[in-house]
Write a structure and sequence with these properties.
With about 60 residues, the chain is mainly alpha-helical. It has one domain. The protein has 3 helices and no strands. The longest helix is centred in the last third of the chain and has 13 residues. It is elongated and about 45 Å long. The chain starts with 20 loop residues before the first helix and ends with a helix.
Length: about 60
């Protein structure tokens, strides 16, 4: 794999609902962003923090596209 073919994790500008985190993860891993959104929603249900904290951390860490 050459440098130009290497995937880079970025927040999505096209596939976004809030910050583009799930869209960027979906594009990076080659799967639908729906599955990441569903995972964060499931993590959010037992009280909020298990889903909210990782999302905010990823929002800060992953650069904008």
């Amino acid at each position: 794999m050459t440098v130009s073919e290497r995937k880079v994790l970025r927040r999505s500008r096209r596939n976004r609902v809030l910050a583009g985190v799930c869209g960027g993860l979906g594009e990076f891993f080659g799967i639908s962003a729906f599955w990441f959104r569903l995972a964060f929603l499931i993590l959010f249900l037992p009280g909020g923090l298990p889903g909210l904290v990782p999302y905010i951390v990823l929002w800060i860490v992953i650069p904008r596209a």
